[in-house]
Every structure is written in structure tokens, then in C-alpha cells.
Design goal:
Blueprint (H helix, E strand, L loop, with lengths): L17 H17 L1 H44 L7 H17 L4 H16 L3 H14 L4 H17 L3 H13 L3 H17 L3 H14 L6 H9 L1
Helix pairs in contact: 2-3, 2-4, 3-4, 4-5, 4-6, 5-6, 6-7, 7-8, 8-9, 9-10
């Protein structure tokens, strides 16, 4: 949020007098002579903290690089699988994603892996696991709206696949209310379907009408028009 340009500035402190600075410097020198060993020890500890901190940052950078490489490798592994691949090969890919998530959960790569893994579970009919992973990804991506929207969309799809229509409606509606432009047209279409399925034809019609009005060029607009005219 931009700062208010009219905000009252905190007054700058008045300049210290030369006499005060001289007295302060003298006091520091006396203190340093009296506590020389302790000051040296404190300095050594301070330096050690800096070194350890730098080491941790280096380790984190290395870990992030490794996690990113693992994400790319595992994603390619899955994409190169024949869709008729046996369960053993598919389980190997899932294990790779689980390893990445468990070992590097604090990295962005691992958070994206949650979405990837959830998508695999959804496509293979493991809707319960997909719901759990999408919920987890949704919480992890609080600071990244675009990925948060993908997790929310996945949650809605997975709940719908489980037959939990009311829950799916709740998440599709949240997508619309929170304004995810790249997902809103799809969410409106799915809301139309679910409202129709749950005996709410008026709400279904309103969802389709809003889709056609706000996203006339969407790939979902034409089937929405068909349903409105049907």
C-alpha cells in the first residue's frame, strides 16, 4: 500500500552538542578498558553468528536450487509417462513428489510440487488425497494469489468429483468473489452445472448469464449459451 504523502513526519532529533559527544566518547573508552576481554568475546560471538548465518543462507540457496531441479526432473518424468503406464511406474513418480515435499517443504518448488502431486491424485481417481493436498497447497500459497487460485480451483474440482457438491460450490464461488480472472469463467460454468445438478435452476441461469456477459470469448461461453437456450 502506498504511503500517504501527507503523513506527518517525525521530527528529526536535534544535533548533539560537541561537549556531549566528547563525554560520550570518553565513557566508551573507559567501558572498553574495563571490559576488554568481555568485549573481545562478544565480538567473536557476533562474528560467529554472522558466519553461521551466512552458512545457513548458503545452504538454503543450495537447497532451493536442488528442490527446483528435482521439481523439473519429476515433472518431466510424469509428463513422459505413457498414460497407460502401470501403477508401479506411476507410484514411483508419486514417491518422487512426496520426497521433494517432505525434504524441501519450505521451498517454493516443494509448494508447487504439492499442486502437481494433487493433480496426479485427481487424475488417477484418488480424490480424497487430492482434496488433502489441494487444501495444504492453498494454505502454503497465502502470499502468492495466482498459485492460491490454482489450489482453490483444484479443491473445488476434487470436492465435486467426490460428490460433495455444496463444498465444491463454496470454493467455486470463492474463486469468483476473490476475482481470479484466469479462472473465473471456468468457475462460473462449473457453478452453473452444480446449481443445475442440485436443483437450483435460477442460480444456474444467473451463473451462465454472467459468464456469457463478462467472458463472451471464453471457451466456456458457447456451451453456456447452449444451456441458456436449451
Amino acid at each position: 500500500m502506498a504511503e500517504n504523502s501527507n503523513r506527518t513526519r517525525t521530527p528529526e532529533p536535534e544535533a548533539e552538542t560537541p561537549d556531549f559527544l566528547q563525554r560520550y566518547a570518553a565513557r566508551v573508552q573507559v567501558f572498553a578498558r574495563a571490559w576488554k576481554k568481555q568485549l573481545i568475546a562478544a565480538g567473536a560471538i557476533f562474528c560467529a553468528v554472522i558466519i553461521v548465518g551466512a552458512g545457513v543462507l548458503y545452504f538454503l540457496d543450495q537447497a532451493r536450487d536442488k528442490a527446483s531441479a528435482m521439481l523439473i526432473s519429476t515433472t518431466r518424468h510424469y509428463e513422459n509417462l505413457d498414460r497407460s503406464a502401470d501403477k508401479k511406474e506411476l507410484e514411483k513418480v508419486k514417491q518422487e513428489f512426496r520426497h521433494l515435499i517432505d525434504e524441501y517443504g519450505y521451498t517454493d518448488a516443494a509448494k508447487i510440487a504439492l499442486l502437481q502431486y494433487a493433480g496426479i491424485c485427481y487424475r488417477t481417481g484418488d480424490y480424497e488425497k487430492a482434496v488433502s493436498l489441494y487444501h495444504r497447497a492453498y494454505e502454503e500459497f497465502k502470499a502468492k494469489p495466482r498459485f492460491r487460485g490454482l489450489a482453490l480451483n483444484g479443491m473445488a474440482h476434487a470436492h465435486a468429483a467426490k460428490g460433495e457438491n455444496e463444498k465444491a460450490v463454496e470454493f467455486y464461488q470463492q474463486l469468483v468473489e476473490d476475482q481470479y480472472p484466469e479462472l473465473e469463467d471456468q468457475a462460473l460454468f462449473n457453478l452453473g452445472l452444480l446449481y443445475s445438478r442440485t436443483g437450483k435452476p435460477e442460480k444456474s441461469r444467473k451463473a451462465y448469464e454472467r459468464l456469457v456477459s463478462e467472458y463472451p470469448d471464453s471457451i466456456f461461453a458457447e456451451p453456456a449459451r447452449d444451456r441458456l437456450s436449451g
